[in-house]
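(Protein data)
===
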Amino acid sequence: MTTEISTPLLIDGQERAASATFPVYDPAANGTVIGHAAAASADDALDAVAAANQAWPAWAALSAAERTAICLKALEGLDEDADERAEILSRENGKVRFEAAIDLMVFAGRFHQAAQYAPELDQAEHIAGPPFDTTITKLPAGVVTIIYPFNWPLAILAASLPAALMAGNAVIVKPPPTTPLSSVRTLQHLMPKLPPGVLNVVTGADEVVGPIVVGDPRVRHVCFTGSVGGGRRIMSMAAPNLTNVTLELGGNDPAIVLDDATLDEAAFAKMSGATFMTTGQVCMALKRLYVPRGRYDEVVDGLRATLENAVVGPGLDPATTFGPLNTARQRDYVAGLTEQAEAAGAEVLTFGEYTVDAASGNYLLPSLVLNPAADLGIVAEEQFGPALPVIPYDTEEEAVALANSTWSGLCSSVWSADTEHGMKIARQLRTGVTFFNNHNATAVDERAPFGGFNQSGIGRELGREGMRDFTETHVMAVPSQEG
């Protein structure tokens, strides 16, 4: 694919050209524009809110089972241009081609997963009297805005979009500015098969669109995935109207290797994949590795073996195992963290080779940072890139304390040959999810709620709990007839 891609706004069941567009760049080739997306104006954003507000009562009046059937029907034919959309995603994001294909598959899969729970919303709960005969139902929130990031855009969008729609809400989708094209192309398939106004998509500048699609009083729920700073801005815009928010704000995920862990080739492959998926740009990636001092060299050598043949280059090159980071700013940030650690005395091991000039895109070789101090950025902050601090510990109590001593609380993992022992440690970790002998997106149980503690977020997505997060509880109490 060599032609530039152009995408419109999707408002009230219609494709709309904006008065301006903005360029989308290829992170693998500096300055190369791969397409243009419509730049929504404030009036466009207001029209999207108005369309959603007009559409949701009729959509909400359908049963959850009816809405679910319509949503699943809207997926039909979605795979017809999957190869083209995967290529677009790889070009705008930088990720390797097979990851882009998986991203698209997860999008559809999460609709089917949500469909298992949506019909439960049609079932009222009853509490018999006396003194009251009470009925408890779940009603749609109303207009919902979903804002999501660049790294796994379609998969992350689908952590909330199916639930929001099937629960009876009308939705405004705000795609990420650096990777909007594949999202719009995908949602262009769905929108015409839903009632007008039920699904709206506005691309454009956050500072233009955000205050409206978050701050308009007609918006009753905002679901945001992104940085902690971004979450704070969303909360501040939602606060005047007391709009509900679901926030997934990333994490600084710890993994604790216990002394009894089985550390074979398969374990190291999982550990490395959990760290370096999407060139480390995953919110639930393994980002701090705590290892018993007596097994430290073994772990470093095991990870070294997984990285020695790393190939860093364009995501569409079949030989590439690490694509570029999505932005030059993020590349420079991660490089700065490793440079700071090295200057402070930590050993930094760098692996692999570039297939192109490293300066031609946002490229960075993967690295291990050995025994950095706890107050260095590589340990204390979320690096969101291909660099992993490996830190020795002496006691399990120390490891748990180090793992929990952070601003975040999204995911964690415990690696042990003894499930009972490992779960004892897992119960002490203050994170929304704790994996066992695994980590990252490949270990997520889609039936379970997902979200974080502390500054990693508010609320939950996925599963039954994620579905209900897009509803309000309605209680109706009638005086019971006492005999």
About this structure: The mean pLDDT is 97. The chain is about 35% helix and 20% strand.
